[in-house]
Specification:
Blueprint lengths: L1 H13 L2 E4 L4 H14 L3 E7 L5 H14 L2 E6 L2 H4 L1 H4 L5 H20 L3 E3 L13 H7 L5 H4 L4 H11 L24 H16 L5 E6 L3 E6 L2 H6 L1 H10 L4 E4 L20
Length: about 270
């Protein structure tokens, strides 16, 4: 527990602090740490936007209430903020993060908060993440990187302190369901969101409904046998949502799968 105390002490040294809070595993644990260290001097900031599952934003609100930290929602529209973002280039996450960091900084300045932190951790360096470059450029503090915490450690500590997110799958934005180079639109994002909401209500906790060309839904799911038992229902609902073809990825769920189409560069 010494490293946890070290992070808390580092937070106290910095004074008032805002945490970018998605309600996922990493940011929830960071919010808990910030509240433990700073009490009312710690704030949480949750983005609400077209590219985020509405259920994720609502869960973030529930978690902030559970922890007891003051959490504020900030409504933004990445699709309208930068036309290049909607074109879905390979550095989409960089463009998104620049938009979010700019909005967060304006919000924090109004609150008199100098330090903004996020839940990036050492395990995140194993994949293509151009948003990391933006966060470094924008001066976002990353305590879990500074103190070399891995995702497995964050999961274990979250369980130890009783956070319900300790076994939560990765939380990522809806844009990750659309392959690079295919335009991101609000209608496509809503279709993906509704498809995944339906799959979760069927009991599939870890799932993705990816949008591919020709209005094709590529479903990644954590229980193949059970998915086949619900085949007819899944096809009917996703067709009703506007997909023309519904396919099941035989590999199953894998986080960041669409990054395989890219050459790994210096943005790791």
């Amino acid at each position: 527990m010494e490293r946890l105390e070290a992070i808390k002490e580092s937070m106290r040294d910095r004074g008032r602090l805002a945490v970018l809070f998605s309600g996922g595993l990493d940011s929830t644990f960071l919010v808990w740490l910030a509240h433990e260290a700073l009490g009312d001097e710690a704030k949480a900031l949750t983005f609400r936007s077209p590219i985020i599952h509405e259920e994720d934003a609502l869960e973030a609100r529930m978690l902030s209430d559970l922890i007891g930290i003051d959490c504020e929602d900030l409504f933004i529209d990445e699709l309208g903020a930068d036309p290049a973002f909607s074109l879905n280039p390979a550095d989409r996450c960089y463009l998104c993060r620049k938009i979010r960091d700019r909005e967060a900084r304006q919000w924090a300045d109004k609150k008199g908060i100098e330090i903004i932190a996020d839940g990036l951790n050492s395990s995140d360096f194993g994949d293509y993440r151009p948003g990391m470059r933006a966060s470094r450029e924008d001066g976002i503090w990353q305590p879990f990187v500074e103190f070399n915490f891995t995702k497995d450690e964050i999961r274990a500590y979250s369980r130890h302190v009783g956070l319900p997110t300790w076994d939560k799958p990765n939380t990522v934005c809806l844009c990750s369901r659309i392959p690079f180079g295919i335009e991101i639109t609000g209608e496509r994002l809503r279709r993906v969101e509704k498809a995944e909401t339906f799959l979760k209500r069927l009991g599939f906790i870890t799932c993705r409904a990816r949008y591919f060309p020709l209005e094709t839904a590529v479903v990644e799911i954590d229980d193949m046998d059970r998915a086949m038992k619900h085949k007819g229902e899944i096809v009917t609902v996703l067709r009703d949502l506007g997909f023309q073809f519904v396919t099941l990825d035989l590999e199953g769920f894998a986080s960041g799968k669409l990054n395989r189409t890219l050459h790994r560069g210096s943005d790791k």
